[in-house]
Amino acid sequence: MKRFAPVCNEGSTAGNALTAGEVLQDNELLNSINGRFQMGFFNTTGSNNRYLGIWINDLYRTVVWVANGDHPIINGTGMLYLSPDGTLFLRNSISQDVWSTGSQFSRGDPQACLMDSGHLVVNDTKTGKVLWQSSYQLSDTLLPHTPLGYMKLLDSMLEIQLSSWNITDVDPFPGQYFRKLDPFKRYELVTFRGSDVIYRTGPWDGNRWNGFPEMTQDLVRFVVSASESGAYYWYEPLDPSVLWRLVLKSNGTTYRYYKNDSGWVEYWKAPDESTPSYAACGPYGIYSDGSCKCCVEDLFHPKNGKDWKNRIFSGGCQRNVPLNDTDQGFVTGQIDEK
Question: Which residues cross the membrane (predicted)?
Fold first, then answer.
């Protein structure tokens, strides 16, 4: 199983790191060493709310992570403080804590730095132990080499998932959609609206998800891994010079983008216009050629023909002849092992 444990103090500089007792003020930035990412405070369009976030360092300043999406600093400034025990505190202008990483227990000299991966990492510089990292608390964006799934930390299992913004590019408060690795060990990616499934990729077959036959690995390598210490999905560009991102938007659609000299290019989205919503065809219904059909048309018929004429398919299909215990149903027998 791949280890996602970056060491913060390798190559750290004053511009990309905080040491114990230091503060990142509202008008200051942390920069990743490769220059791709910046971390600081920002406002969204039309808002006076202040957020701590990480963005891509270009003309678009595309935000990829937000610390306090559900607890904005209202009509004021903020500061980020690293305590001697390795805990990060986000405070408003009257020194009230609006967000923190939770209690950490550094026995050495903690340091927080913005990595070239686009993640903020807190580690103990004496032992190299990672105390916390922003990839444990994703927002709406999945960057390359970032796990999405379940990881064992100490004696508990951490679930890492994407959460949409309430309004894309405007309000980073967690929205109604989230995307996660299936918890029932089918190892597929599932998008939920609350507790309702709206899209799934189908199980992983070792190379692709079987519900996504057009998926290729010609530009990006996809990995699904599972062991006793957890299960997760991650991806990596085959050309490391190209920046990619996966975004769950506030309408429930997941987009994959890559960046070229002209800006961000949409590579694919799911679901798209050709994909029906999850379970749209109802029980015993299948989606084919742009419409719903009964799974076996000579054995099933639409449960409500009037609804189907009006393209309301959620009622599904039912058998022409109900099952009974004489001539229909499952038959017990032995497997021919030849």
Answer: none
